[in-house]
Predict the 3D structure of the following.
Amino acid sequence: MTISFENKVVLVTGASTGIGAAVAKGFAASGAKVAINYGSSHAEAKEVLAEITAKSGEAELFPADLRDTAAARKMVEDVIAKFGRIDVLVCNAGGLVGRVGLGEMSDEFYESVMDLNVRSVVSTCSAALPHLKKSKGNIVITGSVASKVGGGAGASLYAASKAAVQNLVKTYAKEHAGDGIRVNSVSPGTIYTLFHKKHTSPEVLENITASIPMKRLGTPEDCVGAYLFLASDELAGYITGQAIEVNGGQLMP
Ligand code: NAP
């Protein structure tokens, strides 16, 4: 059995950098046509596109700020206009936004974290649903180890937002099993991307590394296989409502 996404269209949100960029390249290498969403990192997204097309893959850029429901809907419409279908939706756009303690939290900060990590998933899944019903497709959502163990200092809301989306996976899986749609999540541990380069000190990352049984941080490429596996009907056709932990043993739930 091999993983092939020939003739499939895969929309990956937050695919300009980090995990999403690696996942987009992974699907393209497996034969999928890839819709690359990103928010503001245009140059990085263009690099992902160039890397895919240089290897004879097919992809296109779909910039959209997914904190905005209308933008998420338009992105899905644009993907349908270009490719005609969506077989796999990877909801990966997200982030910490900043480290803010409970006492300092503003409404604006609350909205920015929840809109980025929760509203984006709800509105993108909702917009893609009619198309996934037609294709009997599936959804893979990026959760986080933080959804189970809580966040590091200043990341309470981020951890809660990821717990929300990992919970949404379960209800969506139940609601749409009858439509032939599977819904799962990948729950990364500490993956060395811009996320941590921007928001976590080298000292904290050293301590985290020491606590991981495999004694290293994850890479975006470490995550790719879990997405391809869950999205493959051949390999994971009876798997729905589940989370795969990709964390070097950091958490064994
Ligand atoms: P990253 O390199 O910062 O990637 C974040 C991605 O989200 C980028 O492509 C970014 O695109 C996109 N994004 C941010 N705001 C957006 C918006 N408003 N609209 C559309 N796209 C937006 O970090 P990463 O670690 O790969 O993060 C990817 C996902 O993994 C996130 O959901 C994150 O929470 C999750 N995660 C990461 C870790 C980790 O340790 N790194 C662990 C668990 C979960 P632009 O820059 O173009 O806006």
Q: What stands out?
A: The CA atoms of residues 90 and 176 lie 16 Å apart. The first strand starts at residue 9 and ends at 12.
